[in-house]
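worker-03 picked up job from queue 'complexes'. Input manifest follows; two sequence lines, order preserved.
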Amino acid sequence: MSTQPRPGQNARLIVPRLVQPNEEFAVRLLIQHPMETGFRRDDSGKPIPANVIETINMEFEGETLFKGHVLNALTANPSITVMMSSKKSGSLRANWRDQDGNTGSISAEVKVVGA
Amino acid sequence: MVLTAALAAPWWLPALDTFAQTSARPLDERVRTAKIERGGLSLDIPVVVETGTSVPVVLFADTSKLKEGVRVERLGILAPKNPRPVAMEIELGKWMAQARITTNIRLGASQSVIGVAQLSDGSYWQHAINVVLTGSACYDGT
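worker-03 finished. Artifact:
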């Protein structure tokens, strides 16, 4: 099991290659994470401890795009899609932390035509 | 994390009170006077799902009819019959072009899934859809 990557290390942040100024576009964040609820049991009947992602912070140029505080019911390998728009190019960054203290982050560049 | 949300008079309490599906604590004055309406909120979720393991949901608050300067501060999804009733809660920043989140949630039972939006003028929008489930995501079927 030790060769398995820690949960929440593998992620994708999907943005369009190029957008127009002030165009609304979708930002999609996918995180590989079991989102263990704590209600399941393993083969020997022991409860599997809960471990879900507690917070997700997404920032564009250092300012908040969204903050997820409670993400109890997100599925395993959660995906969140939101709509954003910008006049200028910039970098998008997402951070997250789960109940076990595993953290992860990913960033992507938003390229706006002519800016 | 559920606890901290429940202790400080959570912003979504009005929604739970209206539907009276869970025994929420008595509301404090701040939320008791809150006005709740459908507003521009739309909750897009399948009405019948085979399994609660992954239910696609789109929560959208249409702000086009709002006064200038009023914005959506938070969006939340409540699943009152889940072991943890607050399915998700997201605070929106200024870069958001629309108050819209698209994601997948788990459901533990057939229930009314409630979408809630908190607006910066202190009002709340909510909308509920009854989702019928033929399997659960929260407990083993044994």
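worker-03 released lock.
Residues 19 and 96 of chain B are 29 Å apart (CA to CA).
Chain B has three helices and nine strands.
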